[in-house]
Amino acid sequence: MNRSKDPRKDQSWERSRDRRKTYRWVMAALVAALAAAIVTAAIVGAAGLPVQEAFRAFSALFRHGVDATGDFPEWAPRLLLDLRMPRIVLALIVGAALSTAGASFQGIFRNPLAEPYLLGVSAGAALGATVAIVWKPLTALGIYTLPLFAFVGAVAAAFLVYRVATVGGLTTAASLLLSGVAVGSTLTALTSFLMVATERDLHTVVVWLMGGLTTATWTKVFITAPVVVLGFIYMLLMSRRMNLLLMGEERARELGVDSRRTRRSLMLVAALTTAAAVSFSGLIGFIGLMVPHIMRLLVGPDHRRLLPATALFGALLLLVADTVARTAMAPAEIPVGIITAATGGPFFLYLLRVRKGV
Amino acid sequence: MTPHETMAPAAAGAPPLYETRALEVALGGQRVLGPLDLRVEHGTFLGIAGPNGSGKTTLLRALTGGVKPTGGEILLEGRPVAHYPAIELARHVAVVPQRFTLDFSFTVEEMVAMGRYARGGSAADTEAVTSALEATGMTPLAGRLVTELSGGERQRALIAQALAQETPTLLLDEPLNNLDLNHQLEIMQLLGRLHGEGKTVVVVLHDLNMAAQYCDDLLLLDQGRSAERGSPSDILDPKTILEVFKVRVAVHRQGSRPYLTPLWSRTPECLPPAGDKHVHVVAGGGAASPLLEELVLRGFAPTVGIVSVFDSDYTTAQRYELEVVSSPPFEPFPREAIDEFDGLAHSADIIVVAPVFFGKGNLAPLHTALQAAQDGKRVVVFTEPPIEERDLCDGEAVALVERLLSAGALEARDTADAVTKIQAASA
Fold this sequence. Notes:
heterodimer; A: about 350 residues; mainly alpha; 14 helices; B: about 425 residues; six-stranded mixed beta sheet; six-stranded parallel beta sheet; about 35% helix; about 25% strand; elongated
C-alpha cells in the first residue's frame, strides 16, 4: 500500500480540513446575516415610520447621536435609540444566552436532546414570575419585581434539583435528569394552581410564559449583558474540557480533566445564564435545544467552534423571530416563542434530511 | 493460598513507580481486591492476568486513580495516587480502558488530539498526534468519524489517544479485545517497542499466551490476591494454572517463552467421559506422541514405556505429567525398567502398541504386549506404517506382531482409528 509522505495530503484528512473551511464560511455568513438583521430590525416596525426614513435616521443616529436631524421625523432617532435598539440588543443577548446554555447542557449530559430548561430553571422562573404577577409583592421595585422573582425562582430551583440529585456526594447525569423532572413538575403544578386561582392576571401570566421582549429597556440590557457575556467567556474557556467530557467523566478524568468540578461549575454557569435570560424574556423555547443541534450539524461537535457559532446563530434567530413577532400582525404582537417554534422545527427537519447525523 | 509479598528487586534509594501496601478495594460492600503488596519498577513490562473476578480491572483502576482504596495505600512515585490532581496524573500515566463512548461526530484525528489536553497545547501537539496515529496504523482513518469505526478500529483509536499523551507510563485494560490476530500482534509489538524506548507498560491481559510471549514480568491474581509474580517461564506451570484457573494445561515452549494449551476444565460437565480406564502404551522414537496427546485430551492418563530419557515420547509424557518408565540412553533396557513396565501392563485395562521402530534393544515391551494378549487383555496394535518397514531386528518384531494379531489384538491404521477403538474398549 502506498503511503504519501505527508499524511495531510492523504484523502482521509479531508474531513478535518473541510470542517475548518466550513466553519469560516458559516461564521462569515452569520456575521453578515446578523448585520443585515440588526439594520432590518431597526428600520421596520409598527411606529408608522417609513422604511427609507428609518434607515436615514438609523445612520444619522450613529454618526451624530440622538439629536441628529435630516430627512426623517425628529422623533425617529429617539424611537430607534430608546425603543428599538434595546429590544434588538436584548434579543441578541437572550438568543445567545439560551443557545450557548443549551450547548453546554448538551455537552454536560452527553445528550443532544438536553436543553437549558432541564435543571428546573424554567419551572422555577415560571413560578417566580407567576407569584410576582399574582401577589404583586415588593411594589417598590416596580417593573423589576417580576424579573427578580423569576431569576430567584430559576436559580433556587436549579440548586434544589442539584441537591436532590446528589446522593452520597455523587451526582450522576441520570439522577439530575430525574430530579429535574420531579422538581420541575412539582413547581409547574404550583404555578398552574396559582394560574387557576387568579382570573384577572391569567392573561399576563400566560403571555409571560410564552415569552416576549416587548418591555426591553437599556437597563435590562445592562443587567443581563454582563452575566451572559461572562458566562459565554467561561464556557469558551472550558470548551476543550467540554469536548473531553463528551467521552464520559471517567475517561475525561483519565485524560486530565477534573470532571466533577468542571461539570458542576459548567452547570452553574449555564443555569445562571439561562436564568438571567429567562427573567427578562419569559420562556422562549426551541432556541436552547435546536440551535446547538443545528450548529453541530454544520460546524461539528468541537465546542471551540460550536459555542461561537451557536451564540451567533441563537442571537440571529431570536432577533429575526422577534422582528417578525412585532411586525407580522402589527400593531399586535405575536409571542415570540410561537415564531421560534414554528420556524425552527421545519428547518431542523430539513437539515436532518440533508445531513445524516449529529 | 496465602498473600505474600511480591517484591521485584528494588533499585537503591529511588521510589518505585508504583507501590501498594496492604491495598484493599471494596466495591458495593464486597472486598474485591487485597490485601495486596505490590511493587512496579520503572521500565517494566508487566502483565496482569487472572480469572474473571480476580480483581485485575480493579487493580488497574486503583493504579489510575479511578477507584480509591478502602484500605491500605497505593503510591505513585512515592506519593498517594489520590493526592495527584487529574491533570498531573495524566502527565505521568496514560490509560487505555476496555471501551469508550463518543456518540458525537468527531474525527479520529480530533479524538486522538484530545489526548494532548494534559500537555497544555503546544507546538508538539500535531507531531504527537501524527505519530500516535502512525504507531496504531490509524493514519488512513484519521479523517473518519469515530461513529463509523469498527470494533477493532475503535480499540486502536483509543490506544492512539493514550499514546498522544506521551506519558512515561502506559496502563492498558485488555487492549486486545475485538482485535483480529493481525492487529493483536501489532499492538503487542508496539507495546514491546515502547517498552524498549523506556516506557513502563502495565497491561491487563486475558490471553495468557500473549502475556507470556511479550511480558517480562507477570502478576497472577486470584480472588483479589496475588497468586504468583515473576517471569512467565517461572510462574506458568500446570500446577499454578490448575489452582488459579481450574484448568488443566500442557506447557510447551516457543523459544524461551512458555506456551499453554488447554486440556480440560475441572468442572464435571467438562470432564471427558472415559477417565478411569488404565491405558498402557508401548512407545518409542516419538511414535506414540500424537496418540498420547489425543488420549490426554479425552481424559485418559495413559502410562508410557519404555523410553530413553532423550526420546521425544518421554518429553511428551513429562509435558502431560504421565507416568513413564524410562531408561538411561545408549544402553539396553535395565531389568528394573522391564519389571516396572510389566507391572503396569499387568494392571492396565488396555495396551496399545504405537508404530514404534523395533530393534533388538526395545523388543521387551512387545513381548509384554503379546503376553498380555494371550492372557486375554485388550490390545490395540498400529499396523501403519507396516511392521515390515519398522522391523530392525531381522524379522523378530514382524513375528511378534503376527502372533499378537492372531491372539486377538485389534488393528489400528492411525491415531484416530486407535482412539476410536480404545474408547470403544473402555466403554
